[in-house]
Amino acid sequence: MAAKLKLFLFTCFVLFALNKEANGVLDTKTQTLINVANARGPYVGLVIPNQFEMNPLLQHPSFIASRLTIDHGGRRFRFGLIEGKKVIVVMTGLGMINAGITTQLLLSLFNIEGVVHYGIAGNANPSLNIGDVTIPEYWSHSALWSWQRFGKGPDNELPLEEPGDYTREIGYLRFANYYTSDNETACNATHDNLLNNVWYQPEEVFPVDGFPEIRQHAFWVPVDSHYYKISKALEGLQLDDCVNATTCLDEKPKVIRVLRGTSASIYLDNEAYRSFIFDKFTVSPVEMESASVALICHQQKVPFIVIRALSDLAGGGSAQSNEASTFTTLAANNSVKVVVEFIKILRFFPWMLQDVEK
Ligand SMILES: *[C@@H]1O[C@H](CO)[C@@H](O)[C@H](O)[C@H]1NC(C)=O
Ligand SMILES: *[C@@H]1O[C@H](CO)[C@@H](O)[C@H](O)[C@H]1NC(C)=O
Ligand SMILES: *[C@@H]1O[C@H](CO)[C@@H](O)[C@H](O)[C@H]1NC(C)=O
Ligand SMILES: *[C@@H]1O[C@H](CO)[C@@H](O)[C@H](O)[C@H]1NC(C)=O
Asked: Rounded to two decimals, what is the model's pTM?
């Protein structure tokens, strides 16, 4: 009997202990910490894909860590000050789903006045250089597709196009255009490819002030217009150009505001596709998280901006060899430098914001 009771109690204990970890519901202790933190808000949320991009911020002399951290949903929300501005720093992990979940948790749990997302990116724009730090005005998710049946073309309606689920308005990629033969790309090939076409689709969005479950659509999501406007002041900022005493970028890197960036849960290292999306969409940074942050902030009506440092020419072909591995740290450090400067402007020159609001 005693053994059975012991086993029962042990099982209950294990279930209880597991329950705390295995269940996404907020426990009372976490909820209390969140309430305390929110009473001291609002905060600027810094959303960062990976450790190597977050660490230079945590080590930056302008970042003063608070003792408070709150763990929830497999994420760690770190509190602190940057130039006196209250911030919450959180790492998402790789890709669109992680970035979306983490951003939604941040906005659902905490008192957030705005979101700054930063990191490194591939480059699709031939007029920019490795090391440049880009601030795009618009972001899209470019991997929601309708993949068209072989034999159908641009004049054929897509499945579910009529009820408004899918559209031919954004454009398509034709695989047959990328046939290679005798080592040459046949860009106007007349032959077919069984992979046929993929059509880019907008996301379904459900804005916080809309009617629940009534969808809207969004492909290009603008960053906050006030944040974008004040980010112009970052353009003259001096950036580092050397990894060490001997390895430097050919061109002095610069902060530059650009028209567009695009994201997908795809590591893009392919010259043909990089050129295609540049020609089609005029995108500069290409990476794996920003559009998720953009789409969440857009739906929750929270101001956001994205700062991405170019660490490589996606697909290679630049004069700088083996870019991604060589310049990743430099690019990550420079993105942090620009973020700190942006927070400084938010903190000390709020009149810049008010000026725009009039
Ligand atoms: C990046 O910053 C860290 C400190 O945050 C420093 O240790 C490292 O040397 C820097 N690396 C480059 C390439 O600038
Ligand atoms: C095509 O590529 C092969 C292998 O890389 C090479 O041996 C050949 O000379 C190339 N042919 C032409 C026409 O460039
Ligand atoms: C298209 O193909 C024709 C015939 O093969 C060729 O002469 C022409 O240069 C090609 N045009 C382009 C833009 O590649
Ligand atoms: C500088 O960095 C490059 C690239 O990471 C590396 O190959 C080289 O050995 C480094 N040089 C010194 C002196 O540390």
From this structure: 0.86
